[in-house]
Every structure is written in structure tokens, then in C-alpha cells.
């Protein structure tokens, strides 16, 4: 069972999921708080030749080399310059059944909150500019739709 399947099972039992709300461009994403290890200010990056387009560099976090991903590239969103609100969210993903730390660039981190599975919407198959398999589900938060990404699938 993958980490996201275990989280889906746990979440469906109580109907609420604790998440870290982040912004990428005009979109709001809810990252499962169980995957988030820390949130840090931007740090210098080192480009990696031959790396995947959406994970073009690495960062040094307290002596650990961590790949830095830009989900905007993976989702086909326009790139933006860093702002004073830009943060790096360090998440733990499962790659080949091994836990791996990855930094994810966020234009803004809003808060840690709970979202309800009672408001879940099916991911539309048309009209979306990203692959539906990258999305666990869409739900409402403060009268806005937010995307809950499938982090394991995005990085696999």
C-alpha cells in the first residue's frame, strides 16, 4: 500500500484531512500535512545537468542534498519569479518504496488546516491543464476549489 493510499484510508475514516495550503500561481493546492517535514525560506540552488525538467536542481538543507521540484513545470503552469512569499516545502515521498525528501517550491504557504472529504469533487477529464492522474481529488476550502495532488504519482 502506498503512502497516499494509506492516507486516503485514514482520511476516509474520519472525513477530515490535515493539509498545508500552498499557492502556485493562481491555483491553491492542499499538501497532506503527514508528508510535510518542514517549510523553509528559499536557499541557493544548484542546477543538475540531465535532471528531469520539473526537478532541475538540488538544495542543501542542513547538510543534506535534497532535489528541488517546481510543480508548475509538472502541471504545465507558467513559471514565475520568486517573491517575498516564496517558500520551499520539504515533503517525504515514496520512490521505489523508499522514503525520499524532496523540496517543492511554493509561491505562498497559507496555513495548516483541515479539509473535508465531504466536499470532494471528481477530477474533470476535460478542461484541465494537467494530467488527472496527478490529482487525488478536488475539494472546497473557504469557498474556493483546491487541488489535492497525488505527490507519489507526480514524482514516480
Brief overview, please?
The protein has 156 residues and is mainly beta. Helices cover 13% and strands 47% of the residues. A six-stranded mixed β-sheet has the order 3-7-8-6-5-4.
Written description of the protein model:
The chain is built from 3 helices and 11 strands. It is mainly β. The strands form 3 sheets. A 6-stranded mixed sheet has the order 3-7-8-6-5-4. A 3-stranded antiparallel sheet has the order 2-1-9. Strands 10-11 form a two-stranded antiparallel ribbon. A hairpin with a 2-residue loop joins strand 1 (16-24) and strand 2. The longest helix has 12 residues, at 3-14. The radius of gyration is 15 Å and the shape is globular. Residues 1-13 have low confidence and may be disordered.
Amino acid at each position: 500500500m502506498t503512502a497516499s493510499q494509506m492516507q486516503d484510508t485514514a482520511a476516509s475514516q474520519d472525513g477530515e484531512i490535515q493539509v498545508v495550503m500552498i499557492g502556485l500561481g493562481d491555483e491553491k493546492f492542499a499538501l497532506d500535512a503527514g508528508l510535510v517535514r518542514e517549510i523553509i525560506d528559499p536557499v541557493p540552488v544548484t542546477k543538475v545537468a540531465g535532471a528531469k525538467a520539473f526537478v532541475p536542481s538540488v538544495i542543501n538543507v542542513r547538510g543534506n542534498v535534497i532535489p528541488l521540484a517546481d510543480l508548475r513545470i509538472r502541471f504545465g503552469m507558467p513559471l514565475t519569479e520568486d517573491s517575498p512569499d516564496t517558500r520551499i516545502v520539504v515533503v517525504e515521498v515514496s520512490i521505489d518504496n523508499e522514503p525520499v525528501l524532496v523540496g517543492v517550491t511554493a509561491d505562498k504557504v497559507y496555513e495548516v488546516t483541515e479539509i473535508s472529504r465531504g466536499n470532494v469533487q471528481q477530477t474533470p477529464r476535460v478542461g484541465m491543464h494537467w494530467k488527472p492522474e496527478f490529482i487525488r481529488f478536488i475539494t472546497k476550502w473557504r469557498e474556493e476549489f483546491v487541488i489535492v495532488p497525488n505527490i507519489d504519482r507526480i514524482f514516480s
